[in-house]
Amino acid sequence: MTGRADELAAQPWAGRKREYDLVKEFVIAVVVVGAMVLALAAVFGSPDEPGLTLQGWAKQAPSDFVATATAELAGTSPSAGYGPPYNSTPDAAQKLGSLSPQQAAGVRIPVDSANEFVVTPLSTLPASPVLSTALTRWRGASPGQRASWATAYGNALATAADGNPAKVTSGDYGPVPTMSASLLEMASSGALQGVIQGEPGFYDTDYTGSILFLGDGTYLEDHAVAQHLSGDQWGMMNETGNYPGQSWLWLYTFWYQIEPFKSSPNADALVWALMMVLSLGFLLVPFLPGIRSLPRWIPVHRIIWRDYYRTHSSRR
């Protein structure tokens, strides 16, 4: 049988032939697709939203900036209690039953929010008596005293009109008002972004610190909601505005929209585990009885390759 097959394969093709100009087809495809791209781009345009920066945040939402800086000092911001890989906050890691992949990975990108986002940047500013005194007082206080000052000031900001620091009632806030006001001024000047990123070299590619700081406030979230990018708006599937995005992500983002994932504090871990199971099932399709037989029961492939099967059937 093998020899006969080799003999048939060595014989010249005796079936029907059709001329095919590959170069012409390629040129036509490039011209047609190029014309369509240019036409659609001219009609619909493309989303071109400017990037969010710490400077823009400080100028456009100063009250939120000061409140977030105060939360960093108090240790109550989301990044301060995120857990691995940024810090070792107890019971912060998401779990799969008794297992915690997040905890197992450990703290690989240490982030001390109060120091990295507030104290260290302020230390890089030119010396001034007021700020130097505030930083010295902060560093000399106990952790409990620091938390007390920052928490009290954060509560006062929350009850002030429009969250305006200028309208905060008097209280025992220690050096926190001075530090947060100095940080706001630093951010407004554009100097804070580079200090927080702190990446050596000409190009900055590590935005971990600045994104964490932005994410701790409401400025970033407000922009995301306005552009239909929040989680309950299927944000991972959208571009900015109403532009459709990566539709192949729908299977992942879908689970976040339904229970029990929607309200679970371990949603990320649960969805990840479910997607691993579904992906494994997809890889094992050729070995699953019943599932692997679906093409024979629903012969869609025979419609797609109908010319082949028509010719093949006629030769039998």
Written description of the protein model:
This protein has 316 residues and is mainly α. Helices cover 55% and strands 0% of the residues. The protein contains 17 helices and no strands. α6 (113-123) packs across α9 (176-188) and α7 packs across α9 (176-188). The protein is elongated, with a radius of gyration of 30 Å. The relative contact order is 0.10. The mean pLDDT is 88.
Instruction: Please report which band the strand proportion falls in: under 5%, 5-15%, 15-25%, 25-35%, 35-45% or over 45%.
Output: under 5%
Overall mean pLDDT stands at 88
Helix and strand pattern: HHHHHHHHHHHHHHHHH
Distance between the termini: 18 Å
Number of strands: 0
Tell the overall outline.
Answer: elongated
| Largest beta-sheet details | none
Helix and strand composition category: mainly alpha
Low-confidence stretches: none
C-alpha Rg, in Å?
30 Å
Percent range for helical residues?
55-70%
**Total DSSP helices:** 17
List keywords for this structure.
316 residues; elongated; mainly alpha
List the helices and strands and how they pair.
Layout: H1 2-10, H2 22-44, H3 54-60, H4 62-74, H5 101-105, H6 113-123, H7 129-140, H8 143-159, H9 176-188, H10 191-197, H11 208-216, H12 219-226, H13 250-254, H14 267-283, H15 294-297, H16 300-304, H17 306-315
Helix pairs in contact: 3-4, 3-9, 4-6, 4-8, 4-9, 6-9, 7-9
What's this, in brief?
The protein is mainly α.
